[in-house]
Amino acid sequence: VSTQSTGEDQMGRVILHLYYNELRIPPEEAKVLLTEHLLTDNKTRTELARWYFNDLEAKALMFVPQELLALVSNGYETGIVVNMGYTYTSIVPIWKMQILRDRAVVLPVGGQDVTRALELLLKQRRVNQVHSIADF
Predict the structure, then answer these.
(1) What DSSP letter does each residue of 37-100 carry, written as one string?
(2) Which of 8, 3, 5, 1 is nearest to 55 (CA)?
(3) d(CA 117, CA 111)
(4) Tens digit of pLDDT for each residue in 83-132?
(5) N or C: which end of the chain has fewer CB within 10 A?
């Protein structure tokens, strides 16, 4: 028997803590909406669904791409969503709440890259101190 904890085990403990200690409801009484990356593969989705239904006995489970939620939460059904994460940026066209996956683009450039580029520019210009608006 291995005593080494996996990422999935840790995630499971966190989720159970949230249900029992924060939400104060048993997971079998919950309907679950999971936000997902546009490119989440079926294997990952299936494993998560199996865990929620078999282990937690969730009542219902729905996977929704983050970009669709962002659009709908702002009152739109059609638009282009640019989602810049830490390591990637997705540009996703949505037409009448349908993601046009064949037109979506995922770029391997994210917030960490923008931060590094700005730091490099500041160093090149020999800016040693960054001021906040409150300083002016």
Answers:
(1) -TT--HHHHHHHHHIIIIIS--SEEEEEEHHHHHHHHTT-SSEEEEEE-SS-EEEEEEETTEE-
(2) 8
(3) 10
(4) 999 999 999 999 999 999 999 999 999 999 999 998 888 888 876 665 65
(5) N
